[in-house]
């Protein structure tokens, strides 16, 4: 019986570029910016990296396919590099590849890099991608806000919550992330907003307004991983280890069958359950110190709180308005600003979340440090509520 | 058992523009337009064309009838494809047997009545669905812009218990070019109406009408309803010439729909059949470089179909707009800047389409023979119970769905913002994420019931292609 990934691999260095509209940078420069920081953090030479994973989503318009964007950018010495892509879970997927390689003993030191250059499209929002030769024939040409807006319409209908009340809870999510973004020099959006600003923002896709939506950003983030033993041998005292890495893609049930009511994220529930089991967590609300969830839209964060088993079903609005997920709440969430304000360069996002957890667990988050967390959860949702890939990862401090 | 008309149907698009709005917008250039500014005209939504209008009329007509049609004829002067069987697409959308013969009839506003005449005078023949649809674009500021409308009509012919039979018919050909549209032109070019009335309507139509009455062995005074696809003034003049009472003239629907070209005589016939009583005699005229005339007599079987089909229900279901630029843009007469998102390349992989053509054109899903779950798209493994190779094809096109979630998206490109789409659930477990049509903002709610309609899914302007699929639309009132 497999024992899972818990405490087999340590993160010894991480880096993250500044996120935002990086008109000054192409994907190569973003990769290098994150890489330099991680290399200095780990205190190793570039040549010590034996294998690498590259996460990149929109290859059509940024860096291209294959291993080459990473191998070329860093002039890697012909080591194996694998490009992975799993929509918004892409960054976490890159980390999973590197962590599994180290755990398997295939190498001692591996690099996971995630990057996305979105601001070369010429317009706001995400570029539309083709859905494949068959799906293009029938699926709506939906946008991400339009797809996630439906979570709100179905959630409000199911729980009989008046839309204006749900919108207030959603506004609190955005206000909180903007407050947190103010403290983060690498964040894309660093501007305070009020609940009123959020409620009165122009509608992008009903019921989502502009301030319910995350930033569309350029950026890169990376991690260098090795075995716990090697990390100790290298002299690291406080070590952040991977406790769980779980992934759950849709199999078509949500969009093809009425058993899904549209108000929750089925795959997130599956991935969370597996991750808690892998990490040995039995009471997530009590055991998890802090979280970085996939707040692509305010309503996503709200619904995810229930799907992760943190809030009771139908109870996320109350928890949000009670401040449970605020910086000074019981389980701070998106203390770096989240996708909402740190930004969302798709391929980098999962690793950006891990970066924040890593800094917080090591007590190195500076002005935005939140107490002394021991267990952190990161969550990604790639795709749309009705068809997606969810990842739930748990990182923690490993006692000496 | 005898051969005749077994059913009828009609379709008028939901969108109407107030003619006053057109007249006001163009008054600076064409002040005379206000003389035509009465009532509304029907126009096709951006995702409708003659082909989709015909599908709706056919579905209206085929209610309650088996779809074992041997012959499909589609009459129109505005078929979207010059080379790709338009009627073939219609046949697939209607799930007609693969053995159906399909024919596109065009080149004349009489395309519909000429086909009707041929079918009507035959003593017997195969089960035939005759469709007539037109969606003529009009030059901004032209009289046609005020006068034309878009609609479709359908008649089902076959052996059985007819609701009406053709008693006699006649046709006259005269190359009187009252108006024309060259093969490569966007718009009709029309001559002076006084000349058309005096030399055309008033001289040619009576010849055809009298010959038809003769062949049917009736006197014109016996005709209960005259169906003359022309303005009320022209029709009244003709009634006088023919010595019949004006009250016998069927409403040309000018104030609600407008002149629908090849579809118009059949639309008016369908409209008349909604209220005709058994044993009535109707005289149908087609006009354009000559005239067709048919004498049709209703039977007692008609009553059973009345109330369930015909254009009246579609006339009642309307969204009237007063916005002239919106009307122009929806018919692609005005190029609004919809931003870079509208540059999306909609190339169709024809080989991929061909493999899944039934799934797309007939909205063919699958029902799992192991767990009875209906699903779209169909697949080799059941989405619910994972039974392999157990699905039986079943279309979702005729099902009533219920909105499970939806959005009004102002970011995505659509010619009629907002882009409304959502999850729709059906009986037996099926759920599908679909693009909606014909809903105004605020018109969809979670729980709303919807019916499916066959529409243009996307245009590929680079390659002059359009693809079709099914969309949820408001229920018929």
Question: How is this structure best described in words?
Answer:
The complex is a heterodimer of chains A (400) and B (477). Chain A has a 9-stranded mixed sheet with strand order 3-2-4-7-1-8-11-10-9. The radius of gyration of chain A is 20 Å and the shape is globular. In chain A, 60% of the residues are buried. In chain A, helix 3 crosses helix 14. Chain A is built from 14 helices and 11 strands. In chain A, helix 2 links the parallel strand 2 and strand 3. The mean pLDDT of chain A is 96. A 5-stranded mixed sheet of chain B has the order 1-7-6-4-5, with helices on both faces. Chain B folds into 2 domains: 329 residues, Peroxisomal Thiolase, Chain A, domain 1; 135 residues, no CATH class. Chain B is an alpha+beta fold and 477 residues long. Helices cover 25% and strands 29% of the residues of chain B. The model of chain B has no long low-confidence stretch (mean pLDDT 97).
Strands, helices and their partners?
The complex is a heterodimer of chains A (400) and B (477).
Chain A: E1 9-16, H1 27-42, E2 51-55, H2 68-73, E3 81-84, H3 90-104, E4 110-116, H4 144-159, H5 163-182, H6 195-200, E5 203-206, E6 208-209, E7 219-227, H7 228-233, E8 239-249, H8 253-256, H9 266-279, H10 284-287, E9 290-292, H11 298-307, H12 316-321, H13 338-341, H14 346-361, E10 375-384, E11 387-398
Parallel strand pairs in A: 2-3, 2-4, 9-10
Antiparallel strand pairs in A: 1-7, 1-8, 4-7, 5-6, 8-11, 10-11
Helix pairs in contact in A: 3-14, 5-11
Chain B: E1 2-11, E2 15-18, H1 19-26, E3 40-42, H2 50-62, E4 71-75, H3 86-93, E5 101-105, H4 111-121, E6 128-134, H5 143-147, E7 151-160, E8 164-173, E9 179-180, E10 189-190, H6 193-216, E11 225-227, H7 232-242, H8 264-273, E12 281-287, E13 290-298, H9 302-305, H10 312-316, E14 319-321, H11 324-330, H12 350-355, H13 357-361, E15 364-368, E16 374-375, E17 391-395, E18 400-409, E19 419-425, E20 431-435, E21 449-460, E22 465-474
Parallel strand pairs in B: 2-14, 4-5, 4-6, 11-12
Antiparallel strand pairs in B: 1-7, 2-3, 6-7, 8-13, 9-10, 12-13, 15-16, 15-17, 18-19, 18-21, 19-20, 21-22
Helix pairs in contact in B: 2-3, 6-7
């Amino acid at each position: 019986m497999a024992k899972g990934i818990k405490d087999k691999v340590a993160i010894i260095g991480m880096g993250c570029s500044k996120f935002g509209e990086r008109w000054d940078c192409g994907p190569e420069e973003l990769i290098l910016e994150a890489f330099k920081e991680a290399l200095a953090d780990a205190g190793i030479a570039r040549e010590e990296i034996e294998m690498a994973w590259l996460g990149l989503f929109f290859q059509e318009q940024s860096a291209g396919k294959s291993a080459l964007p990473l191998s070329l950018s860093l002039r890697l010495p012909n080591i194996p590099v694998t490009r992975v892509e799993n929509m918004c879970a892409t960054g976490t997927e890159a980390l999973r590849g590197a962590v599994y390689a180290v755990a398997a003993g295939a190498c001692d030191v591996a690099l996971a890099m995630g990057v996305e250059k979105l601001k070369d499209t010429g317009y706001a929002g995400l570029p539309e991608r083709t859905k494949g030769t068959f799906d293009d024939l029938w699926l709506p040409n939906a946008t991400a806000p339009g797809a996630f807006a439906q979570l709100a319409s179905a959630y409000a209908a199911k729980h009989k919550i008046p839309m204006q009340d749900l919108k207030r809870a959603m506004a609190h999510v955005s206000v909180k992330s903007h407050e947190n973004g103010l403290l983060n020099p690498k964040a894309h959006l660093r501007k305070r907003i009020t609940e009123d600003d959020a409620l009165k923002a122009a509608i992008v896709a009903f019921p989502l307004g502009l301030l319910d939506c995350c930033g569309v950003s350029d950026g890169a983030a990376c991690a260098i991983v090795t075995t716990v033993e090697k990390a100790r041998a290298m002299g690291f005292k406080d070590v952040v280890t991977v406790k769980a890495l779980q992934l759950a893609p849709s199999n078509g049930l949500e969009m093809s069958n009425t058993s899904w009511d549209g108000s929750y994220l089925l795959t997130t529930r599956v991935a969370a359950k597996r991750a808690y089991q892998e990490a040995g967590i039995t009471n997530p609300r009590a055991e998890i110190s802090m979280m970085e969830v996939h707040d692509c839209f305010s309503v996503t964060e709200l619904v995810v709180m229930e799907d992760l088993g943190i809030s009771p079903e139908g109870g996320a609005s109350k928890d949000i308005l009670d401040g449970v997920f605020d910086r000074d709440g019981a389980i701070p969430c998106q203390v770096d600003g989240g996708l909402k304000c740190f930004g969302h360069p798709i391929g980098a996002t999962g690793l950006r979340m891990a970066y924040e957890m890593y800094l917080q667990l090591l007590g190195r988050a500076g002005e935005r440090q939140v107490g002394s967390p021991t267990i952190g959860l990161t969550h990604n949702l790639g795709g749309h509520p009705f068809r997606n890939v969810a990842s739930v990862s748990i990182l923690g401090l490993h006692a000496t | 058992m005898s051969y005749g008309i077994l059913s009828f149907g009609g379709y008028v698009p939901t969108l109407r523009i107030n003619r006053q709005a057109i007249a006001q917008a163009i008054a600076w250039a064409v002040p005379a337009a206000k003389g035509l500014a009465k009532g509304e005209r029907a126009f096709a939504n951006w995702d409708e064309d003659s082909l989709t209008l015909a599908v709706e009329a056919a579905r209206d007509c085929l209610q309650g009838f088996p779809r074992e049609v041997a012959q499909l004829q589609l009459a129109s002067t505005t078929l979207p494809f010059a080379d790709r069987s338009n009627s073939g697409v219609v046949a697939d959308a209607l799930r007609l047997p693969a053995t159906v013969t399909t024919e596109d009839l065009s080149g004349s506003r009489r395309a519909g009545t000429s086909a009707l005449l041929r079918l009507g005078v035959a003593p017997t023949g195969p089960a035939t669905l005759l469709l007539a649809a037109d969606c003529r674009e009009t030059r901004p500021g032209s009289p046609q812009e005020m006068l034309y409308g878009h609609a479709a009509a359908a008649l089902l012919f076959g052996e059985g218990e007819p609701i009406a039979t053709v008693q006699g018919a006649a046709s006259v050909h005269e190359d009187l070019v009252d108006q024309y549209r060259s093969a490569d032109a966007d718009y009709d070019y029309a001559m002076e109406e006084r000349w058309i009335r005096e030399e055309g309507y008033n001289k040619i139509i009576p010849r055809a009408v009298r010959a038809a009455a003769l062949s049917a062995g009736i006197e014109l005074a016996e005709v209960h309803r005259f169906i003359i696809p022309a303005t009320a003034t022209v029709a009244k003049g003709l009634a006088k010439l023919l010595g019949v009472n004006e009250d016998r003239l069927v409403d040309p629907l000018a104030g609600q729909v407008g002149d629908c070209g090849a579809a118009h005589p059949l639309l008016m016939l369908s409209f008349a059949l909604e209220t005709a009583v058994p044993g009535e005699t109707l005289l149908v005229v087609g006009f354009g470089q000559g005239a067709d005339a048919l004498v049709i007599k209703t039977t007692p079987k008609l009553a059973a179909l009345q109330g369930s089909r015909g254009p009246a229900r579609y006339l009642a279901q309307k969204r009237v707009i007063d916005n002239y630029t919106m009307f122009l843009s929806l018919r692609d007469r005005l190029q609004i800047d919809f931003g870079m998102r509208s540059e999306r390349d909609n190339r169709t992989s024809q080989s991929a389409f061909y493999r899944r053509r039934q799934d797309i054109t007939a909205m063919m899903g699958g029902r799992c023979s192991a767990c009875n779950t209906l699903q779209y798209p169909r697949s080799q493994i059941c989405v619910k119970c994972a039974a392999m190779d157990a699905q039986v094809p079943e279309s979702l096109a005729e099902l009533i769905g219920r909105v499970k979630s939806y959005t009004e998206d102002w970011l995505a490109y659509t010619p009629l913002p907002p882009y409304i789409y959502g999850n729709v659930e059906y009986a037996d477990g099926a759920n599908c994420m679909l693009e909606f049509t014909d809903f105004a903002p605020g018109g969809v709610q979670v729980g709303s019931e919807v019916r499916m309609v066959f529409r243009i899914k996307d245009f590929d302007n680079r390659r002059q292609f359009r693809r079709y699929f099914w969309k949820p639309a408001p229920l018929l009132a």
